[in-house]
Write a structure and sequence with these properties.
Blueprint (H helix, E strand, L loop, with lengths): L3 H8 L8 E3 L2 E7 L2 E3 L1 E5 L12 H10 L4 E5 L28 E7 L6 E8 L1 H16 L3 E8 L4 H4 L27 H17 L6 E7 L11 H13 L8 E4 L16 E5 L4 H6 L5 E7 L6 H13 L4 E5 L23 H15 L7 E2 L11 E7 L3 E7 L6 E15 L6 E14 L7 E10 L2
Parallel strand pairs: 4-13, 5-8, 8-9, 9-10, 10-11, 11-12, 12-13
Antiparallel strand pairs: 1-2, 2-3, 6-7, 14-15, 15-16, 16-19, 17-18, 17-19
Helix pairs in contact: 5-6, 8-9
């Protein structure tokens, strides 16, 4: 058997379709021939496994805000109605609404009142739903993160998985919740490899997919150090004989830690509730860095708007907010008075759409994080990307008014202060190169600055 690295090196020249690292700057993506940053505010990942969820209405809401990303759990994991206190949890389908890659048997006794699963047979209706969802997303220019597995957070959640022996007729999964990914039961590992291979084969024709191995594979999961590597190799080997190749993502354990052992087959490193330091510490890897779950720390829009701007302006390539205004009965994200442990709203989606429009207004592939801007007063934070002498994207958070000092090469420039709540230009001025002092208009919480060269000298 070829090594995973050998397979990857053989495939690199073939990765020309679909989402790929940008050839001029692998910190960002190339998607359908254009540079891409992925930004969204999406549902709780149950769009395919929950038959009651209207994913077409949901995708229409995403594209209305210019979003181009959504996370999707495969169905190897689902939740119970009372899991995490989430109102209308799409990952907790009601009895009769749960579908997954495996077909149901004729044997009763599954956790949801239905028949148990047969881990040797596939549910073709599930795969038809999955492919239709991915196709509808592709029509709207939305990239799907296909999350193959997830940590089992409690005995109750493990008790709802088709991989649990209580829910299948095969006697597979006679382990504790902390041993699901421990390489302890050969049949269970084989079933996991088989379902990963099946999904990869079924989705190969689509250009708007990448694969994340496991959601939150943290220390508490009991995961064997080699388990993720095995799934990565399964994905890579499955695609070695297929026409299209897709990126692979790992969800890193640390919010702002340094990745010390990067893997050559992995193109995306995702963090949860990430800080900008996640980008700073790992920028030298030359990989796309993402914050692919944030949303459980507060209810207000400001918290997540600031997180998004700071992460993207630090050099991140992906921001995915977990938006609890989406629910099974509210596919357009209109559930406001929920009791879920986090935020999300139509207003926040509008604000994140402003960020996406802002960053797409630059030739961002040519830009790198810029720390040269003069120090600010205490309580004010600044993040910036620049291509010196051509373009500068700057973000200020904190209510302290201040004057920025920019050292610009000779030439003429247009400076525009962008309101992060409305998207309007609150102030613009023409400036010339040299040491330039720029004072923003009054702002309450945060503001963005765009500086573009207009002509050379």
């Amino acid at each position: 058997m070829k090594s995973a690295l050998a397979i990857w090196l053989a495939l690199v020249p073939l990765i020309t379709r679909g989402l790929s690292p940008h050839p001029d700057n692998p910190h960002y993506f190339l998607f359908r021939g254009k540079p891409a940053v992925l930004i969204t505010s999406g549902e709780h990942y149950g769009a395919v496994l929950n038959k009651d969820f209207d994913y077409v209405a949901y995708l229409d809401e995403l594209v209305a805000h210019r979003f181009n990303h959504t996370r999707l759990f495969s169905g190897t994991y689902c939740e119970r109605e009372d899991s995490f206190g989430i109102t209308g949890n799409t990952l907790a389908p009601v009895p009769g609404a749960f579908v997954c890659p495996w077909a149901r048997s004729e044997t009763p006794g599954c956790f949801d009142g239905g028949s148990k699963f047969d881990l040797t047979r596939w549910d073709e209706k599930y795969f038809a739903r999955l492919k239709d969802l991915v196709q509808e997303a592709g029509r709207r220019g939305i990239v799907v993160e296909m999350n193959l597995f997830c940590t089992m957070y409690s005995d109750a959640i493990w008790g709802a998985s088709p991989m649990n022996s209580a829910n299948n007729i095969n006697g597979i999964g006679r382990v504790s919740r902390n041993e699901v990914y421990a390489l302890k039961e050969e049949q269970l590992t084989a079933a996991q490899e088989a379902v990963a291979r099946k999904i990869v084969n079924e989705l190969n024709t689509f250009d708007n997919v990448y694969y994340e191995v496991c959601n939150e594979p943290y220390e508490r999961s009991g995961m064997h150090p080699d388990w993720q590597s095995r799934i990565v190799q399964v994905i890579t080997e499955a695609e070695s004989s297929l026409p299209n190749k897709h990126l692979i993502s790992l969800n890193d354990e640390h919010r702002d830690g340094k990745i010390t052992k990067p893997r050559p087959l992995v193109s995306i490193y995702n963090f949860h509730a990430a800080t900008p330091e996640s980008v700073t510490l790992n920028y030298a890897l030359g990989k796309a860095l993402g914050d692919n779950e944030t949303g459980g720390s507060a209810r207000d829009d400001k918290t997540y708007r600031v997180q998004a701007w700071e992460f993207i302006l630090a050099g991140g390539a992906l921001f995915s907010h977990l938006d609890f205004s989406f629910a099974t009965t509210h596919p357009r994200g209109t559930l406001r008075n929920h009791k879920s442990p986090g935020g999300g709203s139509p207003e926040l989606r509008q604000q994140l759409g402003i960020l996406k429009k802002f960053i797409e207004g630059f030739d961002f592939v040519r830009m790198t994080p810029d720390k040269s801007i003069a120090a600010l007063p205490a309580g004010t934070r600044i993040f910036a990307l620049s291509e010196r002498g051509r373009q500068y994207a700057i973000y200020l958070s904190g209510a302290r008014q201040t004057t920025l000092s920019l050292d610009l090469p000779a030439g003429s420039y247009r400076a525009e202060w962008i309101n992060t709540l409305s998207g309007q230009t609150d102030k613009r001025e023409d400036i010339r190169g040299g040491t330039v002092a720029l004072t923003p208009p009054n702002y309450r919480e945060d503001i963005a600055l765009r500086v573009l060269r207009t002509r050379g000298e």
